[in-house]
Write a structure and sequence with these properties.
CATH superfamily of the largest domain: Kinesin motor domain
Family: Belongs to the TRAFAC class myosin-kinesin ATPase superfamily. Kinesin family.
GO biological process, one term: microtubule-based movement
Subcellular location: Cytoplasm, Cytoskeleton
Largest sheet: 10 strands, mixed
Number of domains: 3
Number of strands: 19
Bound molecules: adenosine-5'-triphosphate
Number of helices: 23
Protein name: Kinesin-like protein
Radius of gyration: 36 Å
Organism: Pleuronectes platessa (European plaice)
Oligomer: single chain
Shape: extended
């Protein structure tokens, strides 16, 4: 997904106020335009804008006024995070006057889950997406960097900047450009994270380490620029492709621009303000240069900030700017400056591109496979066909299309045979057959279930959770492994046969001829209708009765009895739910294998224990014998004792090793059980959703969609208090608070480094 292409996306967010400058700031109903007017009677204003027009109109991607944190995130950040999963880099920057709400937008309130900002929401989205994309494996790493007075600081350094008195320059955080990788920060620590809660922990930790100060406009003013980065790498689990994609998501909270007179800064804070204003002014110059396509040189290297952001400004990245402004009249000049910056940023071009890479090891494997195929082709060429025109190259699009047409003609009977030309052609023919079967299956499933359920929804009420649970266990006990496609197709064919039989039965019930066979069919049918709960076993398409039935001609749809929920579940498992169903089977197969290993190890341990007992009792006997009068027992009995002791020591070692192995395998069993449970729950819940939707008319589906939209827009206060993300947020915050308290008690003080002279 490409979130924004062409130009940088720009939004303006107005900080809520009871004293909105009505008449001076106007937000148009289109939600994209802000007009700003200057009063002609204001002396100060007239001085500052001498010779310029007295009103400005700014048209942006969106004007965010009185909008919740959730909506701001959804409009600004959500598409970029989604894009990151497709391999696009993304950057969101908050820019504006001090106190206008940049940190509130980016990090949000650390005390309130509902008011959390972009960073925690992005982490939530990332881990939810990872859970959803079961076909991919992901690795996520994060880093958090601060630029304070032109010095780069690692907010997540393994050695906390609070403890470390080494000057940051000596700790070696340097902006560098590497061929093929662009700008990298050498020395910045990257932290692998495996869960939302892990990541939130690090976010709170970094937030605690930031430099803040207090001045007239903001009690908690960030005195630095802050760059939070998430590095995501994803690889397909299903395709053995060498390709994989990476992306970097940067969330940038810039320090606030400030008028020194207004903030009343002095001393250290004055120095900070000077650095902040200087770097923002360079940022502005860089943006001007980027927006002007005639400029050949862009002064990225003027400051650490612009250098570090080089790839994010007009690079291959989806970039979005949030301009944070006040809505009050007294800040109109600064608001105007921010809006001009936003407009310039809007003119900067971006060229988002997917970061696709090749895994060399997998590529070698692929080439080796290719070589084997080519060799086979050669052997066919030489031995079977003796045909000079055998193709050794991969098939072209045109050849594949031709094969598809041939297969279609073969299937509809207009072509009697397909002649073999090469292994690749044979493989492509098989693939086309498979495709045709799958399409037919999908059609069958949808036609049968949707139309029948629609007709008689009330009759379909078995509790699938229970019947599914039993079925699943039965499969597991039967040692179910991953079903091959052909196996699935056989099951499918048998299911169809069973269904056809059932529809025939139903037909006979209403039009019975009174013959014994007809009666029997009637009984079967009524028995099925009276059963409120149908087990999987009863419906097992492989049961002998079903297999012995000759395939009956398919009755017209209106005579078919509606499939039971359990039957629909079977269809679901080979149709839309086939992926999760096959993962479940795989996991169950692994679980069974591990359980049998546990049994085997337990038996071995028992056997070793038996031997140990035996050796010990022999040794005991010898000891007793030695204690007896000498004439009864000869002295050479000492000799076997040495051998027995050696054997005993070996047995004990073996016993210990087996125990360790058993312990490990038991842990694996626990883990596998957990996975199987998760898959099972997911299969059933996905089926429930599918089943509900399949039985709806198009109008009902539309209504359901509208209702689900409504639910999403409910205020967050209505989220269940135990919503997992809220819990993670709460836990991580509490842990950070504890660390903060410990540090406060032990007298830690943030060492603010003197910046190197520039
Ligand atoms: N949209 C908003 N809704 C509610 N409160 C807000 C909003 N924007 C800002 N605030 C509040 O205003 C105060 C200042 O906001 P914040 O610290 O985010 O400003 P800033 O632009 O990051 O300032 P600085 O550049 O000085 O760090 C905070 O108390 C914050 O909670």
């Amino acid at each position: 997904m490409k979130a924004h292409s062409g130009n940088v996306g720009v939004f303006v967010r107005i900080r809520p106020t009871a004293h909105f400058a009505q008449g001076l700031v106007e937000c148009l109903p289109d939600g994209q335009t802000v007009n700003i007017y200057h009063r002609r009677d204001s002396k100060k204003t007239q001085d500052s804008i001498k010779g310029r027009p007295s009103s400005w109109s700014f048209r942006l991607e969106g004007v965010l006024q009185d909008v919740s944190q959730e909506e701001v995130y959804d409009r600004v950040c959500h598409p970029l995070v989604q894009g990151a999963f497709d391999g696009y880099n993304g950057t969101v920057m908050c820019f504006g006057q001090t106190g206008a709400g940049k940190t509130y937008t980016m990090t949000g309130s650390t005390k309130s889950y509902k008011q959390r900002g972009f960073i925690p929401r992005a982490l939530q989205q990332v881990f939810q997406e990872i859970e959803r994309r079961t076909d991919f494996s992901f690795s996520v790493q994060l880093s958090f960097m601060e630029i304070y007075n032109e010095t780069l600081l690692d907010l997540l350094s393994p050695v906390s900047p609070l403890q470390d008195s080494t000057p940051p320059s000596a700790r070696g955080l340097v902006v560098m450009e590497e061929p093929g990788r662009g700008v990298v920060i050498k020395g910045l620590s990257l932290h692998p994270v495996f869960s939302e809660e892990d990541a939130l922990d690090l976010m709170f930790e970094a937030d605690m380490n930031r430099v803040t100060g207090s001045h007239a406009l903001n009690r908690n003013s960030s005195r630095s620029h802050c760059i939070f980065s998430l590095h995501i790498e994803s690889r397909s689990r299903t395709l053995s492709e060498a390709k994989y994609v990476t992306s970097k998501l940067s969330l940038v909270d810039l320090a606030g621009s400030e008028r020194l007179g207004k903030t009343g800064s002095e001393g250290q804070m004055l120095k900070e303000s000077t650095y902040i204003n200087k770097s923002l002014s360079f940022l502005e110059q860089t943006i001007l240069a980027l927006a002007d396509r005639r400029r050949e040189h862009v002064p990225f290297r003027h400051t650490k900030l612009t250098h570090a952001l080089k790839n994010s400004l007009g690079g291959n990245c989806n970039t979005v700017l949030v301009a944070n402004v006040y809505g009050e009249a007294e800040h109109l000049d600064e608001t105007l400056c921010t809006m001009h910056f936003a407009r310039r940023m809007k003119n900067v071009k971006i060229q988002p591109a997917v970061n696709e890479h090749m895994d060399p090891a997998l590529q070698v494997k692929k080439l080796q496979k290719e070589l084997v195929t080519l060799k086979e082709e050669m052997s066919i060429h030489n031995t079977l066909l003796k045909n000079q025109s055998v193709e050794h190259e991969p098939l072209s699009e045109a050849q594949l299309a031709e094969i598809s047409t041939e297969v279609q003609s073969y299937l509809d009977g207009s072509l009697m045979e397909i002649s073999v030309k090469s292994i690749r052609q044979v493989e492509a023919v098989f693939a086309q057959f498979k495709l045709a079967v799958q399409k037919q299956e999908q059609k069958d499933v949808m036609c049968n279930t949707c139309s029948s359920m629609k007709k008689d929804h009330g009759a379909v009420t078995p509790d699938v959770k229970e019947s599914d649970g039993r079925g699943v266990t039965e499969e597991a006990e039967a040692g179910g492994s991953v079903a091959s496609d052909s196996h699935k197709q056989t099951r499918r064919a048998n299911t169809t046969a069973t269904k056809t039989k059932k529809s025939k039965d139903k037909h006979s019930t209403t039009q019975g001829d009174g013959s014994p066979s007809s009666k029997k069919r009637c009984e079967t049918s009524s028995r099925k209708q009276n059963t409120s709960q149908t087990s999987e076993k009863e419906l097992d398409p492989q049961e002998p009765e079903a297999q012995n039935q000759e395939a009956q001609p398919v009755e017209p749809a209106q005579h078919e009895s509606p499939p039971t929920k359990s039957e629909c579940f079977e269809d679901f498992k080979v149709g839309p739910g086939s992926k999760i169903s096959s993962i479940l089977k795989e996991n169950k197969a692994v679980l069974l294998e591990r359980r049998s290993l546990v049994r085997q190890l337990t038996e071995e341990i028992n056997a070793v224990k038996g031997e140990i007992d035996h050796v010990m009792s022999t040794l005991l006997q010898h000891k007793q014998m030695r204690a007896a009068p000498e004439d009864e027992y000869p002295a050479e009995d000492e000799e076997p004792d040495a051998a027995l002791l050696l054997q005993l020591s070996k047995l004990k070692t073996l016993y210990r090793l087996r125990h360790v192995a058993l312990h490990d395998v038991k842990a694996e069993v626990n883990y596998c059980e957990h996975l199987v449970h998760q898959c099972r729950v997911r299969l059933v819940s996905e089926f429930e959703t599918w089943y509900k939707t399949a039985s709806l008319t198009p109008e009902e589906k539309t209504l359901a969609l509208i209702q689900s939209d409504d639910t999403e827009q409910q205020p967050q206060a209505e989220l269940p208090p135990d919503a997992p993300s809220a819990q993670f947020f709460h836990n991580a915050r509490c842990r950070t608070q504890k660390r903060r308290d410990v540090r406060a008690h032990s007298g830690y003080k943030r060492l603010l480094q003197t910046p190197p002279a520039t």
